[in-house]
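thought: fold this chain, then report.
action: predict
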Amino acid sequence: MRAGPPNPPWLAADVSWAADLAPAAAASPAHEALAARTTDPTRPAEEIGATRVARAASPPAAGGPRSVRVSQLAVVTRPAPPARPVAESRVPAAPSGGRLAVALHDVEPATHRRCIEIREWLQDLGVGRVTLLVIPAPRMHPFPARSPELAYWLLDRQDAGDAIAQHGLHHRQTRPGPLFARPVRRWQGGAAAEYAGLGAEAAAESVEAGRRVLEGAGLHVRGFVAPAYAYTGALRTVLGERFDWWATLLTLHARTATRSPALCLGTSSPLKRAVSPLVVRAGATLSPQLLRLDLHPADFDHPRHVAAVERVLERARDRVAVTYNDLC
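observation:
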């Protein structure tokens, strides 16, 4: 097989800092507290220290349920419906109403507060389990070093039953992909198509560096979703060897492939903003067994997007909320 292009210069540095992450993180009191939290699973969550993300970071409105702050997100607070049934760690048989797999993309320090608010909003709407797609090193900085609070929150969500999955390494394209594929990549995610131009060796090292960051923070990572769903043949091979599952726009690949398109809202162009809410609502009615719903923090800047998600979740109330880990 023909070798891919040589590694970009930033990648060698990625692998080195990923290997040295744990010693560097222990240098500050905040990181010492994080290390204690990750190495002592019996320690109560309430005692993980002052740097922990408290639920007070997003205080509930007086006299009402927890909700996303309207000043930041275009969400209308409604009374919380009854919670959906919570799936076991593995779901052997599909319930009569089907399954609902919600994935929250782009979890990183810059979106941390908003992700907390979105996750609580989903809980208020009865979604008890979510797959959180974490960017290990946005702007080439390992996220635990930039935000121990985010690491604490992810540990809490993991303990509560959410799944943590790897979402690339830094979520930015450093090399253009093949010329014939560029229009498709541009439509999918533009600069977020991180792996479009990487060769086999570079892709493998990038995946491994990101996984080291997540595991160094005490997170159990079983799955992977490429930024912008931009996969290459080399990346698919790497993921099949290293993860229990990986998801494309149309299929969840595990021991067996589950064909189910992910319903995504678009915000990058006027056309996507206008059409995607209609597509999501229509697609939800055509998902008989597994309904995959993708959410991004930027979706919540747009009232029509929020209304579409609320409508989909209301209609999916009889479905069992599952994570991608539950499905493999």
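thought: worth noting. The longest helix spans residues 200-216.
final: tokens above.
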